[in-house]
From TrEMBL:
Membrane-traversing stretches: 12-32, 44-67, 74-99, 182-205
Originating species: Cloeon dipterum
Main localization of the protein described in the UniProt heading: membrane
Name assigned to this protein: Tetraspanin
Localization per Swiss-Prot or TrEMBL: Membrane
Protein topology in the membrane: Multi-pass membrane protein
Family per record: Belongs to the tetraspanin (TM4SF) family.
Lineage: Eukaryota, Metazoa, Ecdysozoa, Arthropoda, Hexapoda
GO CC, alphabetical: membrane
Signal peptide: none
Keyword set, alphabetical order: Membrane, Transmembrane, Transmembrane helix
Length: 237
């Protein structure tokens, strides 16, 4: 019957295989989000990457522990998975809670911290000019209250035609969409799968306290059969 030793082992094995896949999904989405934003390092998304790596390692431990019914491995699996649940839940909520103003501050900080070579790459990738102001195709140096940018009228930037960049849009609008998508996607995936970790903890706890001998016991076995009398812990001869 389901809920027995074999069912718990199979369920725990399946959950850990799913977690391995989820770990790769978390890492891939977070890395894509950081790469697509170009100008800024997203620290919260970095937390999602860390959670994905830890989840992968813990899933391997849980998978081996489930196949071997290893008591010590299953104990540490439950302990680490519970701590991972807390961290992943907090980081996912933080990703979903980031508002437009905070995303703007992150983008500004990233633009200020990167060299002109990266800024030029961003302008060519997103076919934009400048961070907020695209009126000048020539290089604009950084100044107090103003974010400068390298020259926009280069061959790689397709929005500029014959040294004129009238069709170019500011880069912030395009980068902002990628940053917002990275936060929302990472936050949603992390939040949804964090709750499944509680299910894995319960299944691991149940499986850890089960014995292989219970596979021989069925619902049709008489109450006072030799098997039941032999395996009762409270039976006194």
């Amino acid at each position: 019957m389901c809920g027995g030793f074999t069912c718990s082992r199979n369920a725990l094995t399946a959950l850990n295989i799913i977690y391995i896949v989820v770990a790769f999904v978390l890492i891939s989405v977070a890395v894509y989000g950081r790469a697509s934003s170009k100008v800024t390092d997203l620290p919260i998304v970095g937390g999602i990457i860390a959670c994905g790596v830890i989840l992968f390692v813990v899933s391997i431990v849980g998978l081996v522990g489930a196949l071997k019914h290893h008591q010590v491995m299953l104990f540490f699996y439950m302990l680490i998975l519970f701590m991972l649940f807390i961290v992943q839940f907090a980081v996912a909520c933080a990703c979903l809670a980031v508002n437009t103003d905070q995303q703007k501050q992150l983008a500004e900080t990233g633009w200020k911290s990167v060299p002109d070579s990266v800024r030029s790459d961003v302008q060519a990738t997103f076919t934009c000019c400048g961070f907020y102001n695209s009126s000048s195709p020539n290089a604009v140096p950084d100044s107090p209250g103003n974010l400068g940018h390298p020259a926009c009228n280069v061959k790689e930037n397709k929005c500029c035609v014959h040294d004129k960049c009238d069709n170019c849009q500011p880069c912030f609008g395009k980068v902002e969409a990628n940053i917002n998508k990275a936060f929302k996607t990472c936050g949603t995936i992390g939040l949804v799968f964090s709750f499944t970790e509680l299910v894995a903890i319960f299944v691991a706890w149940r499986y850890r306290n089960q014995s292989r001998g219970r596979l021989l016991e069925t619902a049709s076995t008489p109450i006072f059969s030799p098997y039941r009398m032999h395996h009762r812990t409270d039976y006194v001869m």
